[in-house]
Amino acid sequence: MxxxxxxxxxxxxxxxxxxxxxxxxxxxxxxxxxxxxxxxxRGGFSRITDDEIKAIIKHAVNHVYQxxxxxxxxxxxxxxxxxxxxxxxxxxxxxxxxxxxHHPAGL
Length: 107
Ligand SMILES: [Zn+2]
Prior knowledge:
By secondary structure, this protein is mainly α. It has four helices and no strands. α1 crosses α3, α1 crosses α4 (75-85) and α3 (50-73) crosses α4 (75-85).
């Protein structure tokens, strides 16, 4: 397989993994509902509580862990899950290789 076609496959998996681990997680509930009249669209407000960020990260870690284990131990089930995740990603941008860190370590 060429590098280009392998990268296309990895891009497909990356988007599906984010859909499964992040988009379809606790962040959905935070995003739902009416915009906050005070802070919607404005910086300078803490809009996610410590418990909420912990729940988002915990959900993401558990699902990425599950997917990486499946990729090793049960590639058929891994592919089934990736195909399910792809239902959400058809209109997403293609991934780009990050050039540098966006956040300091330990966030
Ligand atoms: Zn607010």
